[in-house]
Amino acid sequence: MALDELRALLARHARPDGTTAIDGVLASKVEQPYPPSPSMSGTVLALIAQGAKRLALGDRVYEYRAGQYLIASVDLPVTGHFIEASPSRPALGFGLTLHPATVAELLLQAAPGDIPSGSGGAPSSMAVSDAPDELVDAVIRLLRLLDQPRHIAVLAPLIKREILWRLITGEQGAVVRQLGLADSNLSHVARAVRWIRDHYTQSFRVEDVAQLSGMSVSAFYRNFQAVTAMSPIQFQKQIRLQEARLLLATHPNDVTGVGIRVGYDSPSQFSREYRRQFGAPPSQDAVRLRAATPRAASTLP
């Protein structure tokens, strides 16, 4: 069966950091269900070959398992973990980074009628579907190149384009297509997301970010919520707290300083929101982080 070969390829080529010799291709192998951890999703296709994974984005929860894939079309703060994994049956996943420029190029090359029509609204930035046989076959052919590295430079770009085309014309094609449309609602929200991420320590007015994204305040708020499952202020808070957790891993004795660095004026507010997010106050969580077993920070695939 196709999934059997996919499992064998992923088990053979998975590295601790998830990377492979093919640019933008990830292979993960996880042997135990670690507690949920926060990270950025990236813009990716994530296909599960064995096991199951659960992700939370705002108030939405996505679960996908063997034979299913998840699309993330905006780089957003998520919390996730494999929920089915063991040394005898590790969770195995494939990931492919999605680039807006490549999506746009394929859309321009497509003939009229090749691409299904879709809604012009803002779809969610994440979606889960069953992987069709054609998509799994293309992923397998891409991973086979890891056993024949002299073919990677020429054949890998071709197969990656095929995979992307299967996504663009597939069940979740609307989510992927908006990634490549410069004037789509999703691209406008993505512009705001990037600005907030780059300036997460700064206070801002929603009206100013809406203007930056080229939308009215009401349209911006509606589309931002649809794409991210959060308000702009909630999104900023997620980024701040994730950055704070990374800093605390290396500066466990400077809780107040870390809070200030990520934009909090009030130490008590920082401690309160941190505890609500991660289940422990910053000082306790810092000790736990230093004692935790090191593992890859990436949530996907």
Automatic annotation (TrEMBL):
<feature type="region of interest" description="Disordered">
    <location>
        <begin position="279"/>
        <end position="301"/>
    </location>
</feature>
<dbReference type="Pfam" id="PF06719">
    <property type="entry name" value="AraC_N"/>
</dbReference>
<keyword id="KW-0805">Transcription regulation</keyword>
<feature type="domain" description="HTH araC/xylS-type">
    <location>
        <begin position="190"/>
        <end position="288"/>
    </location>
</feature>
<keyword id="KW-0238">DNA-binding</keyword>
<dbReference type="InterPro" id="IPR009594">
    <property type="entry name" value="Tscrpt_reg_HTH_AraC_N"/>
</dbReference>
<keyword id="KW-0804">Transcription</keyword>
<dbReference type="InterPro" id="IPR018060">
    <property type="entry name" value="HTH_AraC"/>
</dbReference>
<protein>
    <submittedName>
        <fullName>AraC family transcriptional regulator</fullName>
    </submittedName>
</protein>
<dbReference type="InterPro" id="IPR018062">
    <property type="entry name" value="HTH_AraC-typ_CS"/>
</dbReference>
<dbReference type="InterPro" id="IPR009057">
    <property type="entry name" value="Homeodomain-like_sf"/>
</dbReference>
<dbReference type="Pfam" id="PF12833">
    <property type="entry name" value="HTH_18"/>
</dbReference>
